[in-house]
Automatic annotation (TrEMBL):
Presence of the UniProt keyword Methyltransferase in the record: no
Superkingdom of this protein's organism: Eukaryota
PANTHER family, sorted: OS05G0588300 PROTEIN, PROTEIN TOO MANY MOUTHS
UniProt protein name: Leucine-rich repeat-containing N-terminal plant-type domain-containing protein
Natural source organism: Linum tenue
Location of the Disease resistance R13L4/SHOC-2-like LRR domain: 164-271
Keywords for the protein's UniProt record, in alphabetical order: Leucine-rich repeat, Membrane, Repeat, Signal, Transmembrane, Transmembrane helix
Amino acid sequence: IIPLHHPSLPIRVSYLKKEKAKRNENNWRRKKRKIGKLVNPISSLILAAVCSRDLLPKRAATLSPTTMARRSLSANLLLFLFTFALFHTHALSKTLKRDVKALNEIKSSLGWRVVYAWVGDDPCGGDGLQPWSGVTCSTQGDYRVVTELEVYAVSIVGPFPTAVTNLLDLTRLDFHNNKLTGPIPPQIGRLKRLKILNLRWNKLQDSIPPEIGELKSLTHLYLSFNNFKGEIPRELANLPELRYLYLQENRFVGRIPAELGTLQNLRHLDVGNNHLVGTIRELIRIEGCFPALRNLYLNNNYLTGGVPAQLANLTNLEILHLSSNKMTGVIPVGLAHIPKLTYLYIEGSSFKPGVNPIGMHKVFEVSDADFVV
């Protein structure tokens, strides 16, 4: 124990002050290193000045009013500069070179209508220019990336631009109502973040590539009104988030994959106006299939057999379109008791007289077969 009057006391106090100052300095250096990882170098420098010990408030008794006002003004000015630097850096972020290259390749392949609308060197805009028409971008770190590409109803002609598959951050791709030809490239499977793919009303051909089953985030798939042929790929059943599947008005052959029934979120399935064969019984053979399905369009194909009673297990059905097939048999009684079924179309087939579900549904269209009430 050192008495208060001991001659070594000033030395001891001085030593403790130095140790405290050293600890504060080490703590500040650690904080500055963390700050440098969070913001860009310019912002880090400004923030360092703001947090500097020279600007931190000391005991009020040791500062004159003029000094306090001056330091308060300096702190506010540096805080403003720090905020400005953050926004300025955000505004100056450049579009990822990969996306710029891909869009320029698309631009050169899609014709004069796109060339006329896409002006400037940066697809995401900048230097007083707006983003290219139909291009939506978002900021990721120090760069901007293309997340949506919508070029529809402008009569673009030619093959599907493969360069699109280099836009790896796309969530929406919309080329509907154009004159695109050829197949969908297998590289389409690279777009892992894609949620909406709309290619309807084009002249696309050949089979749908199985790689489309790699788009695990896909919720909407519109491929109707094209010239696709071959079988409907079973790989579509690998899309767990799929809700809307439009495949009508193509040249698909073979059977509808029963595996589609395992899609837990599928609400709308339209395969009408194709060359499909098989039976409805084969389509719904998997127990618990199509739990969320609301609209089922099987019309204008070559389906045979009858309407199975198990169809009544699709309790969320609101629209059922079976017209213009080669089905026969009796309409099952259970069909009239699907609670949400509002529209039922069964004309154009050779059903035998049976129970008439009319009255249970708002719209009911049948062939000239006789039904008993």
